[in-house]
Fold this sequence. Notes:
This protein has 589 residues and is mainly β.
Amino acid sequence: MRLQYAIFLISPLADVTASKLPKKDHGEALNSYPSGGKNRPKHRACWKGKYDINTDYDTNWPETGVTRRYDLAITNGTASPDGVRRQMFLINGEYMGPTLYADWGDHVEITVTNNLQDNGTGIHWHGIRQWRTNGEDGVPGVTECPLAPGHSKVYRWQATQYGTSWYHSHWGVQYADGVLGMMVINGPSTANYDVDLGPFSVSDWYYETASARSWTVAHSFGRPPTIADTGLINRTMVSKEGTGSYGVTVIKKCKKYKLRLINASVDNHFKVSLDRHTFEVIAADFVPVKPKKVDWLFMAIGQRYDVIIRANQPVDNYWFRAEVQDRVGPDCGRNANNGNIKSIFRYRGAPVRDPTTRGTPYTQSCSDEAVTPYRHTSVPRKPLAEAGQLNTAIDLGVNNQGQSVVKWGINTTPMNVGWDKPTLQYVMEGNDNYPEAMNLISLPKPDKACWNYWIFQEVKGTQISISIPHPVHLHGHDFWVLGQGVGNFSETGGSTLEYHNPVRRDTTMLPAGGWVVVAFKANNPGAWLFHCHIAWHAAQGMAVQFLEAESKISAIRAPATHLAKTCKSWGKYYPKHAAYLKDADDSGI
Ligand SMILES: *[C@@H]1O[C@H](CO)[C@@H](O)[C@H](O)[C@H]1NC(C)=O
Ligand SMILES: *[C@@H]1O[C@H](CO)[C@@H](O)[C@H](O)[C@H]1NC(C)=O
Ligand SMILES: *[C@@H]1O[C@H](CO)[C@@H](O)[C@H](O)[C@H]1NC(C)=O
Ligand SMILES: *[C@@H]1O[C@H](CO)[C@@H](O)[C@H](O)[C@H]1NC(C)=O
Ligand SMILES: *[C@@H]1O[C@H](CO)[C@@H](O)[C@H](O)[C@H]1NC(C)=O
Ligand SMILES: [Cu+2]
């Protein structure tokens, strides 16, 4: 392999050939689809060597020997994605950090520097399996101490799966103020396309900072005032006042495009569509699915869909729309600019003007798109008496100033982690005196295959009675979604579960006042968060952590060295030199 490579480089065609090959030089970002291997417009199921769309990526992935290096420096500044300037955090000087690109099997090494004056931070790589690298998961209070101002941390992990995702701060609600970016792991696809358009984020947008808003949400009783001001598509929008601009994506008639949709919202669930075009869904989260055509696609917070768009309409301009599902009820998110969160798809040769197309009619809903994994897997059928139960409810707690605060507990306890002593620190010390508020669940000695089953149920609180749908996300694994429904699972759900090739992903919807049953293999040593991805709910405690294969944690890649360094610098900064302290009511994650 290596020899062949060298021969290319000394041939007269060296320049041409070399520029077509994926860049191997360490440290350089790969900015476009690689053309190496057999992966070509008409052969997208192929990858390289013996790897393709049928490969079981749970056990098998390429070892490319390539390391992609990135630097992310977080600063405090202002930006105006829709022309309205606001205080926010930036990465490398921009709203949304650089997109991280890697090929399936590459190693990724990211140096994160905290250049904020007054906040810690910690970056989580959403959906990355972190196979035997739990210490790189980036959750302050669980896998690390926060990164103190002025300090850096190098995160190292391997891309064992492929597809589209995002990275974001897991330190309080900080991501909602701009500490996020996108990730593309190139790999095979379940349908062919000509051009990869890259990641396309959709998110809600607020003019107030998230730390301020989170406080309001926690201290308002009854339905929280979480109306987003507007939304952003691919980081831009026209505001209600007419400032800013719509994003424009230029496409060419007769070509097939792959678009990587990412929902990076804080509180809004959207449905998206492109007027007069269908989306062919080919991946959900990091899981390739059987191609499925839809006009409108529902995206919960944290979810990703790769879709194919055929440019088969007359040369013209078309609206891409993202609509918040606010007629389903008030709790699928609300947005003051709903109906006007749009972006332009322009065929090459079309006049430069706004589209005049109308949206395809649809029915609002707030539940996952039904998709089928491409690669069949089955979950062993187990008596559900063996399943764990996680009951979540909104309720009122009292803080240490005697004020009432809104809480989302699980089995009545809202999570609250200590930043200065993450779970992994306890593990290293052999100390299993975990405070109750860490919501730690040691997984019982697993059977050989390590399957375990969880019933996540939303129940009524004792003092507030509201049901809200929640996008729930598991770190370090995909889970299999065996079923979802409304009402009480033990009365309505049992007989309806799917064990044969159920949906597999890392984020799913827990319906309002309902349940979701998930199964996963607890075979990845570490402490893994399972939480609601609505930033406010996570801050109000809606999370547990699974401590998995505890006895094997110290053997995985040196979390101890990491911890010693970051916890020492954090200890020096906090609380002595910190201008702000953690709100005692905030979960910390
Ligand atoms: C960001 O800057 C503002 C205004 O200067 C300041 O009040 C705030 O504390 C800073 N935030 C952080 C996290 O450094
Ligand atoms: C998203 O916006 C960036 C510029 O910020 C642009 O380079 C990219 O092509 C856009 N993506 C799509 C799919 O239009
Ligand atoms: C993103 O997820 C949030 C929360 O689940 C949801 O309210 C919003 O509509 C989603 N956005 C998109 C574009 O799907
Ligand atoms: C659900 O039903 C079971 C069995 O009837 C009952 O024991 C349980 O308390 C119910 N749970 C809720 C949240 O209503
Ligand atoms: C983070 O910084 C913001 C100001 O930008 C401040 O309001 C908040 O209290 C800080 N949080 C902590 C825990 O330091
Ligand atoms: Cu929630």
